[in-house]
């Protein structure tokens, strides 16, 4: 018998990477919130790789942090290794990457959730979304509990009709031996949502004592640890290394000889998998000429001997998994503690959502995370935060938070999902961002902290500290442009020693800093009035000065981009009455319902000629309206 449990403002279905951010954001914005998980001991479970960050993903963790999210802080509390990648490359692709203690990460997030005011967490499976007409009104759980809510956020990850596949064996299951969620998909279909099927996979875990590290290349963390969160002070911590080894001809032969038993190739697995996290069998098939692939052995944590084999994701039968693993150098005696597997699951076609992640068909129903067709902890957390913020802002009758492609990687991610849709699990990449020189991981606060403070998730104290930093950066950039170095004998002797061209006319410090062979620290000898500045200020001053030209050019491109983004399309537009639109374009526009001409121009199948037709139609409509008034 159904029974009423309680009334909430926001109900969050799931406490994974998306669910935690959504629930914390709504509760911290003062809303009475409840979150559900199938198992409370799997809150923020890292079901796959024990790492967070890297190019694009690391940028998003920083963006989550400055918008008031939790992931960055939780990483800084529980990492066992931190590295800055691509340090020799330009700032647009530099990215932090952390190795985490998985159990500590989950436990720390659970503790944050348990101690958050306005937030209840319940171990229950949600089986139904309750609606009143086209508006959400709550959820029902497996025990027939009714939780009324003004907004519902679904963040069910890989659990919806989860199916585990290992060789020719498969069963209904969630990740890491957890239960699946078998009933909610039907409720979503009954509400008219179109679902798709995707798959992802994970590699075996082996016992540390069965690994011969002497045959591998150590991958240590950085000496100078740079934290993910802008709220973290300097961190000193003993770090644990990862190890590099390779597959070889024997490994490849074992896999090739058993491809006929691989569910990916027997057709047992139907869902599309992540192109950028391919299984090892897929790599062997797609890259036949490669005689070896990198394998990273990554510790899963401090209190465990489990080691994650990055690069050996598979759903091959267990006997093959044992043979192929032991064919890798250093793993000859590997003891497998958990076998690799693939999981197939339902996802919701994301073009059914608005850029706020609210569903177009059901008011105040939001979706976030893997359920939207993405893959990755960072992608999920970013969506969860935005959905949580927007659910709260809507209840407070405030303007929604929509990040554009020129604001943030989160903006690129969500715009790609709701405008272009997905054919396979979507993962963020730097190459997806047109304006990546502006969307760096080092300037996330300058780009977004205003927004985090405005919505109330960034404290006044943190914001004041940020404004002070920003002021110092601007002043120092101006100072470098104003300080002139004249070609004195001393100055030129210093420049000669620095093996850079000498001056024959006065030059500003800023002009000197633009020289690739010089940097801010080196220039100290010529800069008598300099005061010592924090490293994060110096980093901004250096990048803004050295890349000034490129940054200006990208800002000009953003101005162009914004012109089309600001050409809004009225919600009540009727595409049937627009003469001259292509058939495919009309169908796609009716489905996606873009908010602007800019968004319309990114829908595949909408051609430039269709955009011209749209612009003329909107202009005629605007004039007609003016006329009538
Ligand atoms: C086998 C495997 C391999 C992966 N491989 C990769 C990879 O290679 N690269 C990568 O980037 N990412 C990978 N991932 C993905 C990564 O784990 C997810 O992207 C990330 O966890 C998604 O976060 P989420 O919050 O959307 O969902 P999840 O972290 O899956 O959390 C979902 C939450 O919803 C809860 N839940 C689900 N249904 C219900 C319900 N009906 N009622 C109540 N609670 C419910 C669950 O208990 C859980 O708390 C993999 C995941 C798995 C399982």
Tell me what the structure shows.
The protein is of the alpha+beta class and 629 residues long. The chain folds into 4 domains: 288 residues, 3-Layer(bba) Sandwich (FAD/NAD(P)-binding domain), CATH 3.50.50; 137 residues, Elongation Factor Tu (Ef-tu), domain 3; 75 residues, tRNA uridine 5-carboxymethylaminomethyl modification enzyme MnmG/GidA (Arc Repressor Mutant, subunit A, Orthogonal Bundle); 62 residues, GidA associated domain, C-terminal subdomain (DNA polymerase, domain 1, Orthogonal Bundle). Helices cover 36% and strands 19% of the residues. It contains 20 helices and 22 strands. The strands form 5 sheets. Strands 1, 2, 6, 7, 8, 9 and 20 form a 7-stranded mixed β-sheet that branches. The chain has a 6-stranded antiparallel β-sheet with strand order 14-15-16-17-13-18, with no helix packed on it. Strand 10 and strand 11 form a beta hairpin. Helix 1 packs parallel to helix 10 and helix 13 crosses helix 16. The termini are far apart. The mean pLDDT is 96. It binds flavin-adenine dinucleotide (FAD). Flavin-adenine dinucleotide binds next to helix 1, strand 2, strand 12 and helix 10.
Condensed summary:
The protein is an alpha+beta fold and 629 residues long.
Label this structure with key terms.
629 residues, alpha+beta, FAD/NAD(P)-binding domain, Elongation Factor Tu (Ef-tu), domain 3, 7-stranded mixed β-sheet, 6-stranded antiparallel β-sheet, 20 helices, globular, binds flavin-adenine dinucleotide
């Amino acid at each position: 018998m159904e029974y009423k449990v309680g009334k909430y403002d926001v109900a969050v279905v799931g406490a994974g990477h998306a669910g935690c951010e959504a629930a914390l954001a709504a509760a911290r914005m003062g809303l009475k919130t409840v979150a559900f998980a199938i198992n409370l001991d799997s809150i923020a479970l890292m079901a796959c790789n024990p790492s967070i960050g890297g190019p694009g993903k690391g940028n998003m963790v920083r963006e989550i942090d400055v918008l008031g999210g939790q992931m960055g802080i939780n990483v800084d509390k529980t990492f066992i290794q931190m590295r800055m990648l691509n340090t020799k490359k330009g700032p647009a692709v530099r990215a932090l990457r952390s190795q985490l203690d998985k159990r500590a990460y989950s436990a720390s997030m659970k503790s944050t959730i348990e101690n958050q005011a306005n937030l209840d967490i319940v171990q229950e499976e949600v089986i139904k979304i309750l609606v009143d007409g086209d508006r959400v009104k709550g959820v029902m759980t497996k025990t027939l509990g009714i939780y009324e809510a003004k907004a519902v956020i679904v963040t069910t990850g890989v659990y919806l009709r989860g199916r585990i596949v290992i060789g020719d064996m498969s069963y209904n299951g969630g990740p890491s031996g957890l239960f699946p969620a078998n009933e909610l998909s039907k409720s979503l279909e009954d509400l008219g949502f179109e679902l798709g099927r995707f798959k992802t996979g994970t590699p075996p875990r082996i016992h540390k004592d069965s690994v011969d590290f002497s045959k591998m290349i150590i991958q240590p963390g950085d000496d100078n640890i740079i934290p993910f969160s802008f709220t973290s002070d300097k961190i000193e911590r003993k770090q644990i290394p990862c190890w590099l080894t390779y597959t070889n001809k024997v490994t490849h032969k074992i896999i090739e000889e058993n491809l006929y038993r691989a569910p990916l190739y027997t057709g047992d697995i139907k869902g599309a998998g992540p192109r950028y996290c391919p299984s090892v069998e897929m790599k062997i098939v797609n890259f036949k000429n490669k005689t070896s692939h990198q394998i990273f052995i990554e510790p899963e944590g401090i209190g465990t001997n489990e080691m994650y084999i990055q690069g050996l994701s598979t759903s091959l039968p267990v006997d093959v998994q044992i043979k192929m693993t032991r064919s890798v150098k250093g793993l000859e005696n590997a003891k497998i503690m958990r076998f690799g597997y693939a999981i197939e699951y339902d996802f919701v076609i994301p073009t059914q959502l608005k850029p706020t992640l609210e569903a177009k068909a059901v008011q105040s129903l939001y979706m976030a995370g893997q359920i939207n067709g993405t893959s990755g902890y960072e992608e999920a957390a970013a969506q969860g935060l935005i959905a949580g913020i927007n659910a709260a802002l809507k209840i407070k009758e405030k303007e929604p938070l929509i990040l554009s492609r020129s604001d943030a990687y989160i903006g690129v991610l969500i715009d790609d999902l709701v405008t272009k849709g997905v054919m396979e699990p979507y993962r963020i990449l730097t190459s997806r961002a047109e304006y990546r020189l502006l969307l760096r991981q080092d300037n996330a606060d300058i780009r977004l902290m205003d927004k985090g403070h405005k919505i109330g998730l960034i404290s006044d104290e943190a914001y004041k500290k940020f404004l002070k930093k920003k002021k110092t950066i601007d002043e120092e950039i101006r100072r470098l442009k104003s300080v002139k170095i004249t070609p004195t004998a001393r100055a030129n002797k210093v420049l000669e020693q620095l093996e850079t061209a000498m001056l024959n006319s006065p030059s500003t410090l800023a002009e000197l800093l633009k020289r690739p062979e010089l940097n801010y620290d080196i220039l100290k000898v010529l800069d008598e009035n300099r005061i010592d500045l924090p490293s994060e200020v110096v980093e901004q001053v250096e990048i803004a000065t050295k890349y000034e030209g490129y940054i200006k050019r990208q800002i000009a491109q953003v101005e162009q981009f914004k012109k089309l983004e600001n050409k809004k399309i009225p919600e009540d537009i009727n595409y049937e009455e627009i003469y001259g639109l292509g058939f495919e374009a009309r169908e796609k526009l009716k489905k996606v319902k873009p908010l602007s001409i800019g968004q319309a121009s990114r829908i595949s199948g909408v051609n430039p000629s269709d955009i011209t037709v749209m612009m003329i139609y909107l202009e005629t409509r605007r004039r007609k309206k003016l006329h009538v008034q």
